[in-house]
Amino acid sequence: MANQSTPDLLFEIRNSFFIGNYQYCINEAQKLKHLRHYEFNDPNVTLEKDVFMYRAYIAQHKYGVVINDITSSSEPELQHVKMLAVYLSGNPDKKKDVVVSLESKLQNVNPDDKILPLIAGLIYYLEENHDSTLRLLHKSDNLECRALTIQTYLKISRIDLAQKELNAMKEIDEDCTLTQLAQAWVNLNKSGDKLQDAYYTFQEMVDKYANTPMLLNGEAAALCAMGKYEEAESLLQEALDKDPNCPETLINMIVVSQHLGKTNEVSTRYLSQLKDSYKDHPFVKDYSSKEQEFDRLVKAYAPVVSS
């Protein structure tokens, strides 16, 4: 949705969303309501501003704000954002309804609508329906769609295809923050000097923009991959101070605690916090599934006690 004629007006909003500085994104979007720049009279600019603002609310788990603000008279693109908020709000029945409704919505996509493919692709990704995600996004030149495609390829361990998609992103806009982030994601899945490159990318963004939990977790992940767990723990503690309930930080803290040989109580505390706050998180679901399987095997192979 970015408009080349107005890059400066929305840069801070767009960029802060990409690096996970969600409150700043919201604050900057709200400031624009009081401006009278001629660019702001462009309805496309207004719409893009609102889309990023409401997506930032969603990233903060403030689903009710989005659901209540966006009405039936709002633009279709905002309706798509509301659909994501409804999906993530935690109601199982509504989540199923959203997934079912996607098929009919995607049959009549407006070619100018860049948001529906992105939101639908994200929902399919969260559903772990990777085939549908890739089929939906593969024709889009939207950088966010391409970034989600890269995340999907990395999820299914196709680093070769992720690199190919990254090359396409670079041809569109090599200097975009999102492209730089995608480069770091790909490098995190490689080895050797590429891990160091990923760390430097996140570090440069922290120095240039803000030390958000997203960027701090990126740095920590790179350090973990290089075996530097104590350094990673320091960054993760900083991320926890900024957002005590960030699921990625809690997961990485569990990993680091195990590698540093901390007591089981430490990692168990982080795991309990994660389960309490994000029972539908993929990590929690996978962990719970493995717990159940372990219990099943214990019962299956338990010695028979004769009377």
Automatic annotation (TrEMBL):
The keyword Membrane applies. GO terms for biological process: endoplasmic reticulum to Golgi vesicle-mediated transport; intra-Golgi vesicle-mediated transport; protein transport; retrograde vesicle-mediated transport, Golgi to endoplasmic reticulum. Its main location: membrane. Keywords: Cytoplasm, Cytoplasmic vesicle, ER-Golgi transport, Golgi apparatus, Membrane, Protein transport, Transport. The keyword Protein transport applies. It is a peripheral membrane protein. InterPro entries: Coatomer_esu, TPR-like_helical_dom_sf, TPR_rpt. GO terms for cellular component: COPI vesicle coat; Golgi membrane. GO terms for molecular function: structural molecule activity. It comes from the Eukaryota. It is found in: Cytoplasmic vesicle, COPI-coated vesicle membrane; Golgi apparatus membrane. It holds the Pfam family Coatomer_E. The coatomer is a cytosolic protein complex that binds to dilysine motifs and reversibly associates with Golgi non-clathrin-coated vesicles, which further mediate biosynthetic protein transport from the ER, via the Golgi up to the trans Golgi network. The coatomer complex is required for budding from Golgi membranes, and is essential for the retrograde Golgi-to-ER transport of dilysine-tagged proteins. Oligomeric complex that consists of at least the alpha, beta, beta', gamma, delta, epsilon and zeta subunits. Belongs to the COPE family. This is Coatomer subunit epsilon. It comes from Trichonephila clavata. The gene is COPE.
